[in-house]
Amino acid sequence: MTCGEVSEALEMYIVGDLDVTLAAEVAAHLSGCARCRRTYEELRTLIGDLKDTARAFQPLQIFQDVPDMAAVAHRGANGKTDRSPRGARRSFPQPRRSRWLALAVGLLLAALVAAITVVSVPALAEDIPLPIGHELARLRDENRLMRQQSLHMQNEIDQLKTEIITIEGQRVPQVDTANPAVSPAVNAAVQGVVVKFVMAQYAGDLATLKELATAQLQARIAQRPQDFLRDNAGKVSFAQLTDVSTINEGGATKYLEFVRLMDSKVFNQSQYQENFTLIKSDGHYLVDSMEMDA
């Protein structure tokens, strides 16, 4: 909270009208701001008499019991029993009649100071069985849990190594995911074919698409060219691609590449993904399948 926000909330804080969460935030601010603490003390003095202010922090029973404490102390000092009806209104005896009365009054003031200190100092409040102490402890635990979750997410992100590479004149962020990775030469060759294929899609270049495809994919392109062409989508941007991974199907090695893309007209607010499978034929890498994925 800012000093201005605390200043606006101080009156309700002093009389106990703030909810537990806001009271905890005010208390935390007061513990670290000397100027606001001075304002708090000045305003507390102005609000009602001391008894009404104390009710916001400490049970009323403490104040009701002080006269009885004083009476017991006085009876012990004089060896006599105070027979006034319990609960009747009594004034404090004069200090010269009992030193124990001074002690009782001192205990009352100490209780009041302790109550105000608990609310003003969060570190102490956590060790005191008051609602504000429980709330501060809960907030502290939630904050610790959030820090742990943040560190866990950061560790997962750090495990994905990203580097900017240049492929066919395009600067593209590459995320290392393959395990095991192929050689750098194979990785560059496969990615080069994929980037050329995407550029041909956005250029409306069917001839290049067929040149980069296997016979099986050429047949699909010829049958449904609209599934492959993106020439109405504007300029393409490569948001991300993975390094090349491999799978083995029927004794043949296939190469997998995944590309995240955006463009200037259709996918200009979000990305989409194209999933490529390539094979090596007569020393050349060819696209065997391409599937669009949101």
Describe the structure.
- It is a single chain.
- With 294 residues, the chain is of the alpha+beta class.
- The chain folds into two domains: 3-155, no CATH class; 163-293, Nuclear Transport Factor 2, Chain: A, CATH 3.10.450.
- It is built from eleven helices and seven strands.
- The protein has helices at residues 3-14, 20-32, 34-46, 50-54, 61-78, 99-120, 122-125, 131-159, 184-203, 206-211, 215-223, and strands spanning 162-167, 170-175, 236-242, 245-249, 252-263, 272-281, 284-293.
- Helix 1 crosses helix 2 (20-32).
- It is elongated, with a radius of gyration of 38 Å.
- 19% of the residues are buried.
Strand proportion: 15-25%
Give a count of the beta strands, DSSP E runs of length 2 or more.
7
Supply the helix-strand structural class: alpha+beta
Overall 3D form: elongated
List the domain count as a whole number. 2
Tell me the helix content.
40-55%
Stretches where pLDDT falls below 50 for ≥5 residues? 49-63, 81-98, 124-130
- Largest beta-sheet characterization: 7 strands, mixed
Order of H and E elements: HHHHHHHHEEHHHEEEEE
User: Separation of termini?
Assistant: 42 Å
Q: Number of helix segments?
A: 11
- Gyration radius (Cα, Å) is 38 Å
Average pLDDT works out at 77
